[in-house]
Write a structure and sequence with these properties.
There is one protein chain. The chain has 4 helices and 14 strands. By secondary structure, it is α+β, with helices and mostly antiparallel strands. It has a domain at about 50-170: 3-Layer(aba) Sandwich (SMI1/KNR4-like). The protein has a 7-stranded antiparallel β-sheet with strand order 13-12-11-10-9-8-14. Strands 3-2-1-5-4 form a 5-stranded mixed β-sheet, with no helix packed on it. The chain has a two-stranded antiparallel ribbon with strand order 6-7. The longest helix is centred in the middle third of the chain and has 20 residues, at about 100-120. The two termini are about 15 Å apart.
């Protein structure tokens, strides 16, 4: 079965994904993923985000103020993860799929921040996965810079000066 997201979207065939991102300067909101079956494919369309557009639960849990760009990233829309490349590296942007999924994402962000605190590392907020299970793309909560970080050791490499810059330079994957 093939999966596709229409208009600002993703197409998945097997384990490969193709994505068309919205223009980097506009962050159009959407509402619950709408889907329908057509020609042996499930089509998904991003939907407006219906909840409060903040990560207050994460901030309260850890008594921390988060980068506003990360809150905007996670609360722009309900959508499936989107694949692309940045400087030749494959990444999959973590997206919130539904109201229930938003709770899971916040719990995962809390877990990530707790791990960082225990390791005495500066706080980071993941925004994308990579092909390596040991690396994620994160936003440094102190500087706002986007980094490629290895989970566990404090190995990190700055890849963009800001989340906005990262998204502007991200190249969508396309099988179309």
């Amino acid at each position: 079965m093939h999966y596709a997201i229409l208009a600002n979207a993703t197409v998945t065939s097997g384990s490969r994904r193709a994505v068309t991102f919205p223009p980097a300067r506009s962050c159009t909101a959407s509402h619950h993923l709408a889907s329908w079956l057509h020609d042996d494919a499930v089509w998904w369309q991003p939907q407006p985000f219906t909840l409060a557009q903040n990560l207050d639960a994460v901030e309260r849990a850890l008594d921390i103020q988060l980068q506003s760009a990360v809150a905007a990233f996670y609360t722009a829309q309900f959508a499936a993860d989107m694949s692309g490349t940045f400087s030749g590296q494959h990444v999959s942007l973590v997206q919130v799929r539904s109201e229930e999924d938003f709770q899971r994402v916040q719990e995962n962000l809390i877990g990530h921040l707790v791990m960082k605190r225990r390791l005495k590392h500066s706080p980071t907020l993941f925004i994308a996965t990579t092909d390596s299970e040991l690396e994620v793309v994160s936003v440094c909560n102190l500087s706002g810079k986007v980094i490629l970080e290895q989970l566990g050791p404090q190995k990190r490499q700055v890849v963009a000066p800001s989340l906005q810059n990262f998204l502007i330079h991200l190249q969508p994957l396309s099988d179309l």
